[in-house]
Structures are given as C-alpha cells and as structure tokens.
C-alpha cells in the first residue's frame, strides 16, 4: 500500500510517463505522452520523468529528452524483452514506492491497458482509462482526467483526490508531441529488475498475435476508410485492394463495424480509434460528429460520396461526387500508371 492519508499527498512529486516500448525501441506514442506531461509538470513546478522498461533500450534516453522529458528512469534487462505485465507491474510498483510520482500516465494501447490496472490496484490508487484530455486543478494539484463516458454520450472529468499517484491511460493520437529539440538533455537514472519481480512467471511458451493486431491505424500514413455506402464485406474488399496497392490501412465508420462487415479494430471515431494520418480517404462516410472527432486532425481528407452536401464532403480537402463502386475501381486502375 503506497498512500491512504490526505496528509501524505505532499510527498508525491513529478509526472511519470511509462514509455511504450516495442522491439527495443521507444514507440512514437510515448512522445505524445511526454508532450502531454510537460504542461502538467510545469503547472506543478515538477519534472517529467520517462520510465523505460525493456531489453536493449539503453540508447533511448536522448530522444526522450529532446521531446521534453527531464529525467529518464531506465530499467534495461533481458527479462523485459517481449512484454510480461506481471514483471513490469512489479517493477513499476516498486519504483513508485521508492520515487513517489504524483502522476503516472501511460498509453491506452494493448500493453498499457494490460499493465497499468495491475499497477494501480497493487499501489491502491485510482486509474482513469482512455483519457482524451488532461489538466491540473491549480488549487490542489488534482489531475483532471477527461474521457468519454456512457458510450461516448458525455465527457466526464474524473479526479483521484485522496490517493497518490494519480494514474491515467491516454488514447494514442490525441495528444501532440512537442517539436524535438536536440539540444535538450537530462539525467538518466538506472534501476534493476529483482528476482522477486519475476517470482510469479514460469515461462512464456509462445506469443500469438491475433488477426486484429495487424490493423495499425495509429501509425498508418494513409487510411482508406469505408462507411455504410460500401454495402457489405465485398465493398470492403475493394478498399483493402486499394489500401494494399498504396500501402495504406483500412478504417471504417461505426455503421460498417456494427453491420459486421469489418472488425471493431478498424473503427475510427469517438468510440473507435483516433487517427492522424497524412491522408484520410473517407469512402461513403457521411461524417457524423462521432466519426469526425476521430479523424479531423488528419493532414489531407479526401471524401467520395454520392451526396455533395454531407459534413464529410463539406470538410474534405478533395471531395469527389460519385458512386464509390465506380470511383474506387477507376482509382485502382490508374495506380499502375502513376
Ligand atoms: C455514442 C455514440 C458513439 C459513436 N461513435 C462512433 C464512432 O466511433 N465512429 C463512427 O464512425 N460512428 C460513431 N457513431 C455513429 C455515428 O453517429 C454515425 O451513425 C456513423 O458514423 C454513420 O456511419 P456512416 O457515415 O458510414 O453512415 P451514414 O451516415 O449512413 O452515411 C453513409 C454515406 O454513404 C453515402 N453513400 C451511400 N451509397 C453510396 C455509394 N454507392 N457511393 C457513394 N456514397 C454512397 C451516403 O450518401 C451517405 O453520405 C457513434 C454514435 C453514438 C451515438
């Protein structure tokens, strides 16, 4: 148990960002979290500490400093290769007990969602999952954790007033990474994995990736997204073909997901993923607000719809008025000539 008394809150300082690590590298979502942590730490006159758990991650600190971290807490151990939530959770709880961060944030990725609840429960503190906005109450240092609630019908701001640390997972692609400043430096603190952190794990036999893990909308530069007008799974085959030809990923509106034409992992929007691709092609998606909030930050929006008056067609940089079953095959036919 880390803290139960109000009076102990003053012992807790700094904003921790638990880095998302994959293949020995800190993943880009971490820089978004560091960008989000910076104003929180500034408001509390404290520091941003990036916590990196992994194997072969010894060289990752400079990029974290350049994106806004003040300190890097590095735990580099072969037992952290791959992802074992029990070990990482045990290490994190120990370090939280030792350093007493005021705030701990982590990406709401598969890894973060598996890891952080274990940590919060063991540390006996609160956790708000899937935040889309973070702020600080200047009166008392409470972290204001805003997230969609009741199926996205309201935005709820949640506090963890009597316990520390305050913990939150943050949706990828919602926060902005800071411009990298290579002149920034900081301090690296080294910590170890103890045998006691690994006591529960016997042996990982195999890691099996599900079919949906191939859908990586968050990192896709081009997204070809389909809506109700694709009319069924065969329509989505057309989108997959186009996406494959131009190296894109396939997204979808909730209408298409609810109809069972494409798995939920493809859904973009308020109750799906938030994306920030360079190109977002919306094929027969009308552009209701719940969809727009998930993709409106994309650099270029191309829309294809029979109806030129839809919100998506009105906001698009390029709006093509036409039938998707005519326009998309024409685009596919042109690609070999480009
Ligand atoms: C709490 C809540 C959360 C939600 N979360 C999400 C979310 O995360 N993501 C999301 O997408 N939605 C979400 N929705 C649903 C959202 O409100 C819309 O219902 C949904 O986005 C509509 O999907 P759509 O644009 O594919 O369908 P529609 O609105 O029916 O639009 C279909 C479009 O296709 C066009 N069309 C039809 N046939 C063709 C053709 N042959 N060629 C060209 N164009 C054609 C039509 O003109 C129309 O513009 C949520 C709703 C609620 C209440």
Description:
The protein is an alpha/beta fold. It has two domains: 6-198, Rossmann fold; 211-337, Rossmann fold (3-Layer(aba) Sandwich), CATH 3.40.50. It is built from nine helices and 17 strands. Strands 7-11-6-1-4-5-12 form a seven-stranded parallel sheet, sandwiched between helices. A five-stranded parallel sheet has the order 14-13-15-16-17. The chain has a three-stranded antiparallel sheet with strand order 8-9-10. Helix 5 (233-246) links the parallel strand 13 and strand 14 (249-252). Helix 3 (85-99) packs across helix 4 and helix 5 packs parallel to helix 9. The radius of gyration is 22 Å and the shape is elongated. The chain binds flavin-adenine dinucleotide. Flavin-adenine dinucleotide binds at residues 151-153, 227-229, 253-256, 267, 269-272, 284-286, 288, 290-291, 294, 304-307, 310, 323-325.
Provide the spatial order of strands within the biggest beta sheet: 7-11-6-1-4-5-12
Largest sheet: 7 strands, parallel
Report the strand count.
17
Instruction: Supply the CATH architecture of the largest domain.
Output: 3-Layer(aba) Sandwich
Mind sketching the topology for me?
Blueprint: E1 15-18, E2 21-22, E3 25-26, H1 29-43, E4 48-54, H2 61-66, E5 71-76, H3 85-99, E6 103-107, H4 110-123, E7 127-131, E8 133-136, E9 143-149, E10 154-158, E11 166-170, E12 187-190, E13 222-226, H5 233-246, E14 249-252, H6 254-258, E15 279-283, H7 289-292, E16 300-305, H8 311-315, E17 318-321, H9 324-334
Parallel strand pairs: 1-4, 1-6, 4-5, 5-12, 6-11, 7-11, 13-14, 13-15, 15-16, 16-17
Antiparallel strand pairs: 2-3, 8-9, 9-10
The protein binds flavin-adenine dinucleotide (FAD).
Residues 151-153, 227-229, 253-256, 267, 269-272, 284-286, 288, 290-291, 294, 304-307, 310, 323-325 line the site of flavin-adenine dinucleotide.
């Amino acid at each position: 148990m880390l803290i139960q008394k109000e009076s102990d809150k003053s012992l807790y300082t700094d904003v921790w960002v638990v880095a998302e690590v994959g293949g020995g590298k800190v993943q880009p979502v971490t820089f978004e979290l560091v960008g989000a942590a910076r104003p929180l730490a500034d408001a509390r006159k404290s520091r941003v500490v990036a916590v990196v758990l992994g194997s072969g991650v010894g060289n990752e600190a400079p990029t974290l400093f350049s994106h806004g971290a003040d300190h890097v807490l590095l735990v580099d151990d072969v037992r952290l290769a791959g992802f074992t939530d029990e070990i990482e959770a045990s290490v994190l709880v120990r370090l939280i007990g030792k350093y007493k961060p005021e705030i701990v944030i982590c990406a709401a990725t598969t890894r973060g969602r598996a890891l952080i609840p274990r940590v919060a429960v063991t540390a006996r503190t609160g956790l708000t999952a899937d935040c889309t906005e973070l702020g600080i109450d200047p009166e008392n240092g409470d972290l204001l954790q805003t997230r969609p609630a009741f199926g996205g019908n309201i935005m709820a701001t949640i506090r963890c007033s009597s316990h520390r640390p305050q913990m939150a997972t943050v949706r990828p692609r919602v926060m902005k990474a800071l411009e990298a400043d290579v002149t920034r430096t900081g301090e690296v603190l080294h910590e170890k994995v103890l045998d006691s952190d690994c006591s529960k794990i016997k042996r990982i036999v195999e890691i099996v990736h599900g079919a949906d893990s191939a859908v990586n909308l968050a990192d896709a530069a081009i997204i070809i997204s389909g809506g109700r007008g694709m009319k069924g799974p065969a329509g989505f085959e057309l989108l997959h073909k186009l996406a494959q030809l131009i190296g894109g990923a396939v997204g979808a509106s909730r209408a298409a997901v609810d109809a069972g034409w494409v798995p939920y992992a493809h859904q973009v929007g308020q109750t799906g993923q938030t994306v920030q691709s360079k190109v977002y092609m919306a094929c027969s998606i009308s552009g209701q607000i719940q969809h727009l909030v998930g993709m409106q930050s994309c650099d270029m929006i191309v829309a294809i719809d029979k109806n030129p008056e839809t919100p998506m067609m009105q906001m698009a940089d390029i709006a093509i008025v036409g039938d998707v079953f005519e326009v998309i095959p024409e685009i596919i036919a042109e690609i070999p000539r480009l």
